[in-house]
Every structure is written in C-alpha cells, then in structure tokens.
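hey
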C-alpha cells in the first residue's frame, strides 16, 4: 500500500488578481505561502519517497515550503513541463472579467469550461490531459506500484486531468471539478496502483 498526495499550489498573485496565468511565472501571495505551509503541517505524518512538480515557480515554491514543514528538505523533486498548468495562450495575463467583456462571456465560458475547445494559441483541458496522464503513467505510477509514497505539487488543470484518470471521471464530471489552492488530496493506492481510499485534508 502506498500514498499518493496531489496538491495544487498556494494562491498566486494572478489568482488573487483574477487573471489567466497558464505558463507565466508568478509568485505566491502571502496567503499562498501560508496555504503551502499549512499543507505541510497537515502532511507531517507522511514520509515521502518521491516528489514531482512542474517547471513553474508557484508549484516549486509550494513544494519547497511543504518539504520544509515536513522536515524532508533533502528530497530532490522531479520537475517536468508535463505537469505545468494548462497554457491559456492569448488569454494569459488578462483579467477574466475584462476578457469576458472583450470576447463575450459565453465564448470565455466555452474556453474555460469545455473539455476540448482551446483558447486562441492555447491548450484545452484535453490537451493538458494528453501530457499529464502519460507522465503520470510512466513516472509516478511505477513509484506507487513499488509501495513508495509520492507527492505531486502542480496546478489546477494538470491535477484535474490526473484526478479524472485516477477516479474514472467522465468529461462532463471533470468539468465540474474544482481543486482548492493549498489543500492536499491523499489517495490510498494498492500494489496495482488502484485507488482504494481518498481523503481531502482541508483546514
């Protein structure tokens, strides 16, 4: 039996400003730093064997703070763009309300909440899943099959794709899934990498 922990990064500056962030590197807010530290406190009873994160600062900083709080600063993370947030293309950096005024609320809703319609120059959730799920299967699942505890600190959409895969969610179901910043999701995983338990460590 192994544990898999999925953790969306703490609140970022552009989360706070209601902007499309995507692959732009923005720092955590003070609240985001506090969320990351609180997540670390909730995870202190778990000894991790492997940790994974994206290439983006907000996820890396969240992971660093969690490992600091759990006393596991010596763990070296695997960093990969496959775990990056969904790329929002031409929308990156734009305020979501202003974007709705510019393109129309209905069109922006389609870009944000459809499964396979990308924004201009960007990725759909399906595109994000097409990189995140194979990465999970190739690099993370073998660790779990070996009975090793794994922490993945990443982003709302890359983690939604992985949750869809783990829990067998339909396209419609994953569109309704929202992951809170800084809240660990802990899965109990058997020797075949099947999910046998789940708990959300909210404050």
């Amino acid at each position: 039996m192994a544990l898999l922990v999925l953790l969306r990064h703490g609140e970022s500056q552009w989360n706070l400003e209601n902007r499309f962030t995507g692959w732009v590197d923005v720092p955590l807010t003070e609240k985001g730093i506090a969320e990351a530290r609180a997540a670390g406190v909730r995870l202190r009873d778990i000894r991790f064997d492997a940790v994974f994160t994206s290439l983006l600062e907000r996820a890396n900083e969240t992971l660093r703070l969690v490992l600091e709080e759990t006393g596991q600063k010596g763990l070296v993370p695997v960093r990969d763009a496959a775990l990056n947030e969904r790329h929002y293309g031409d929308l990156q950096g734009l305020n979501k309300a202003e974007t709705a005024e510019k393109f129309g609320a209905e069109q922006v809703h389609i870009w944000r909440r459809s499964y396979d319609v990308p924004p201009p120059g960007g990725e759909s959730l399906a595109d994000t899943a097409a990189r995140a799920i194979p990465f999970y299967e190739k690099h993370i699942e073998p660790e779990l099959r070996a009975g090793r505890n794994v922490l993945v600190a990443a982003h709302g959409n890359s983690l939604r794709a992985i949750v869809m895969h783990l829990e067998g969610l339909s396209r419609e179901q994953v569109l309704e899934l929202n992951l809170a910043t800084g809240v660990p999701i802990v899965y109990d995983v058997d020797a075949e990498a099947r999910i046998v338990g789940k708990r959300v460590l909210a404050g």
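The longest helix spans residues 125-145. Residues 53 and 79 are 5 Å apart (CA to CA).
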